[in-house]
Amino acid sequence: MFTGYLTLNDGIRLFYKVYGSTTQSEKKIDSDQPTLIFLHGGPGVVDHTLYTPFWSKFANKELGEATLQ
User: Fold this and answer.
1) 10 and 39 in contact (C-beta within 8 Å)?
2) Total-model pTM
């Protein structure tokens, strides 16, 4: 897992967290792997960690590193 910020043209910075990347040491996304983007409500709605146990089940599923139950 690694984190970062994406800066948009108007200066807004979006925080992101990547789970299950096969190139974690390089801190970049493996474009050959399927990508799932989860966007939750804005500030004050709920912290994203509430959803982590569910969505992290999909990390590296094709590499055999995660299983769905």
Assistant:
1) no
2) 0.59
Overall number of domains in the chain: 1
Where helices occur in 1-69 by DSSP H, the ranges are 52-55
R_g (Cα) of the chain, nearest Å: 13
Query: Is residue 17, in this structure, part of any structural domain at all?
Result: yes
* 21 neighbors 28 (Cβ within 8 angstroms): yes
Q: Which domain holds residue 10?
A: 2-63
Phi and psi dihedrals of 16, rounded to 5?
A: -135, 155
pLDDT in tens, 10-51: 999 988 888 776 555 667 777 777 777 777 777 777 777 788
Q: Is residue 20 domain-resident?
A: yes
CA 18 to CA 24: how far, in whole Å? Answer: 9
Query: What's the first-to-final CA gap in the chain, in angstroms?
Result: 22
